[in-house]
Amino acid sequence: MFYRCDVNDHGLPYNPFKACVIPRPIGWISTVSADGVPNLSPFSFFNAINERPPMVMYCPNGEHRDGGEKDSVKNARETGEFVVNLASYDQRDAMNASAASVPRGVDEFELAGLTKEPSTLVRAPRLKESPVNLECAVLDILELPTSDDKKSGRMVLGRVLGIHIRDEVIVDGMVRAELLRPLSRLGYMDYAVTDSVFQLERPK
Q1: What is the rounded distance in angstroms from the CA atom of residue 40 to the CA atom of residue 183?
Q2: What is the pLDDT of residues 114-131, one digit of tens each?
Q3: To which CATH superfamily is domain 24-193 assigned?
Q4: Domain Flavin reductase like spans what residues (predicted)?
Q5: CB contact set of 42 (below 8 Å; sequence gap of 6+)
Q6: Rounded-to-integer distance, Cα 17 and Cα 163, Å
Q7: Nearest-5° angle of CA 44, CA 23, CA 100?
Q8: Residues of the chain with pLDDT > 90: what percent?
Q9: CB-side exposure of 41: number of CA atoms within 13 Å?
Q10: Which end of the chain, N or C, is surrounded by fewer C-beta atoms within 10 Å?
Q11: What gap in Å lies between CA 33 and CA 56, rounded to an integer?
Q12: H or E stretch at 111
């Protein structure tokens, strides 16, 4: 099949775009407001975008239920900081709970039964239950074009300042994905977990 994205003439019950770009890593973003209120939200439009220096991005599309920017953008804009927490299989239910659309001022850490841990270089708390935390400084916040007048699109770009890695997931000097068991988003309401890994040598 072929369909045009500007008219979405695919004839399917659900838009297949997000089911075609898979798996997508989940950026479980923690921020804190200028008033000190923490926020925790997962985003599947997330990825690493550079190595030297390490950089990441996440896209909190849409608006807050109370109007205006989502807290994950608003807080990053106000404070210039955020933390990316790895969502592993053990935290799947808590990750999903933290995705709830709740009023401003609600602490999603408490809502999902999770533990805040002080970061080393930024004010935003990190997630204690996560095996990896990336402490980040905001580089830029970009406005993205939108084809839906009711939804905005934004991309938060960040430079990774420091990384916490749980010691038990490091084996022979390497971080092992099968021990991390990271969650990824597929299409629709589908998720996947990485617990099987293979190697390929790059051609010389």
Answers
A1: 16
A2: 999 999 999 999 999 999
A3: Electron Transport, Fmn-binding Protein; Chain A (2.30.110.10)
A4: 19-177
A5: 26, 27, 28, 29, 87, 95, 96, 98, 99
A6: 32
A7: 30
A8: 85
A9: 25
A10: C
A11: 20
A12: helix 108-111
- The three-class DSSP label of residue 125 is coil
Q: How far is CA 90 from the centre of its chain?
A: 16
Structure tokens given for 150: 């009711």
Cα 24 to chain centroid, rounded: 10
Tokens coding 25: 């890593």
* Nearest residue to 163 via CA among 197, 134, 127, 202: 134
Strand order in the sheet with 183-185: 24-25, 183-185, 191-193
Q: How confident is the model at residue 150 (pLDDT cuts 50, 70, 90)?
A: low
The answer to whether 81 and 73 are in contact (CB under 8 A) is no
- The amino acid present at 104, given as its one-letter code, is R
CA angle in degrees (0–180, nearest 5) for 169-174-180: 30
